[in-house]
Design goal:
single chain; about 60% helix; about 0% strand; 2 domains; PUB domain-containing protein
Length: about 290
């Protein structure tokens, strides 16, 4: 009986202990929150006094940011004015007079004035001849030619190599091509077709006489298409030593048929193999001299 009575009485005692423990835990949490609130409030007050937006230090910091922003804005505006000033075309009196006297259209005039003053003077240095049918196109071609020359001068050694390789391939100089385009008043399509030819064909094309034709650009393009991009006449292959000579131009044997220096005609033993070196016996199969 005692055992039965003691078992049911243990349950309420354990529940009461758990409730007391939870109450104590809740009270401790409330105390911690109160302590945290007490610590945060003075800390925020210190922030407001030292560096907040309404404090003297905060006002100084805000003024400094505004002053830096104004400086950056002024620098950006000055750079923008400099760019606009650099894009503004430079008008020279002699260039304006050249444009008016030769009846240059607005497109060509704008391209000329977009150049530097020195480049403008270079472009108008050569006078336009009386047989030029479209002076505006000629001036646009001059501007393009000058720009290409400036680009090549910037590349340096690459331009020198291209000039050297073009000369080795028989290509005419760029000045000769530009002069031919200008003298014959070729349009952009004809000029591109001329520059698209192989170097040896360019050397042929710049000697064509287009003066009898009314539409020189169309005639040039048809002749350039007929000329095509055929490779130059191949060089004769040098024959091997001992082979029959190949006739060169005019029936004269090529120079490659001559034997090398120190060697006789085909079938003759070279003299260097008939005599052994001084002080050495003859090689096997060779008779000494005089036997």
């Amino acid at each position: 009986m005692v055992m039965g009575i003691g078992v049911p009485s243990a349950s309420p005692t354990g529940n009461a202990a758990k409730k007391d423990k939870s109450r104590r835990k809740g009270a401790s949490d409330e105390e911690d929150d109160a302590q945290n609130e007490e610590w945060v409030e003075p800390h925020s007050e210190c922030q407001d006094d030292s560096g907040g937006s309404d404090s003297p230090r905060g006002r100084k910091r805000r003024k400094r940011r505004e002053r830096d922003r104004d400086r950056r804005g002024r620098r950006g505006r000055s750079r923008g004015r400099d760019r606009e000033r650099s894009r503004t075309p430079v008008r020279l009196p002699e260039v304006d007079r050249f444009i008016d006297e030769n009846n240059i259209n607005s497109e060509a005039a704008m391209k000329i004035r977009a150049l530097s003053p020195e480049s403008q003077r270079k472009v108008i240095a050569r006078p336009l001849t009386g047989d030029v049918q479209n002076p505006s196109k000629v001036m646009i071609a001059r501007v393009r030619e000058l720009q290409n020359q400036n680009e090549k001068s910037k590349t340096g050694s690459g331009a020198d190599f291209s000039l050297w390789s073009g000369a080795m391939l028989g290509a005419p100089p760029e000045a000769a091509i530009a002069k031919y385009i200008e003298e014959n008043d070729l349009d952009d399509s004809a000029a591109r077709s001329l520059r698209a030819l192989l170097p040896h064909n360019q050397a042929v094309a710049i000697h064509w006489d287009l003066s009898p034709y009314k539409n020189r650009s169309a005639k040039f393009m048809s002749m350039a298409a007929a000329l095509g991009n055929a490779p130059p006449f191949p060089m004769p292959v040098p024959p091997m030593y001992g082979m029959p000579p190949v006739a060169g131009p005019g029936g004269v044997p090529a120079m490659y048929t001559m034997p090398p220096p120190g060697l006789g005609p085909p079938g003759m033993v070279p003299p260097m193999y008939s005599m052994p070196p001084p002080g050495m016996p003859p090689m096997m199969g060779m008779m000494p001299p005089g036997r």
